Structure formats: C-alpha cells, structure tokens
Write a sequence for this structure.
C-alpha cells in the first residue's frame, strides 16, 4: 500500500480509511473485488481499489458511495469498534431488531430455524 509521498499531508487519513475498509471486508468475508462490484453503479472500480489500498485522493462523496456499496452509513464506517463486533449492514440490523422484539417463547424456534438455514446453505 502506498501511504506517504513527499509533500503528502493526507497519508495518515488514507491509511486509516484503507485499514477500516479492509477491516470491514474481513469482518464480512468479502473481497475488494466484491465491494467494487457492489459499488459499480455508484463509483468506478478503480476508485474503490484505490481507496482500499490507500492510494489517490478520496473525497467524502466517494467514501460515502463506497459506504453505500457496503450497505452502511458513513457514520457506521467511522464508528470504530476495535474488531470486537462486526459492522452490521441494514439487513442484519433489521434481523436483530426483529429478534429482540419477538416473545421469549419464540426466540428458541428462531435460533433453530436459522441454524437449519445455515446448514442447508452449506450443503
């Protein structure tokens, strides 16, 4: 990764953004290529790769579009959690919200159903 060039005062910002992108991708188990494909309607793949590698000049608008491809807000992007909890996308947040609103008697059923779905998807 390229972070510092002579006269470049923004290298630490690019480095931190690049590391955050890599962290989110790792948490979600996706590659930069998949992210670039998710963003292709909003921003060029080259821009996504550059941001993920700490290269080029990333604008706030470009980062916001990358966040859109990650299905998260720019606020969520910067909500650093030191790797303790994965960053959730909107669908995952909705699942958790719905789970929390279900009567305790049904939570066990939901857990069993999710385990069955996971097992079926792994076959």
């Amino acid at each position: 990764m390229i972070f510092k060039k002579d006269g470049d005062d923004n290298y630490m910002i690019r480095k931190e953004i690049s590391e955050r992108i890599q962290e989110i991708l790792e948490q979600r188990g996706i590659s930069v290529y998949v992210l670039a494909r998710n963003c292709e309607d909003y921003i060029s793949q080259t821009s996504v790769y550059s941001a993920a590698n700490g290269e080029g000049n990333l604008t706030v608008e470009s980062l916001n579009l990358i966040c859109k491809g990650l299905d998260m807000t720019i606020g969520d992007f910067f909500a650093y959690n030191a790797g303790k909890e994965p960053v959730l996308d909107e669908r995952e947040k909705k699942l958790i919200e719905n789970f929390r609103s279900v009567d305790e008697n049904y939570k066990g059923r939901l857990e069993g159903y999710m385990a069955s779905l996971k097992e079926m998807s792994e076959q």
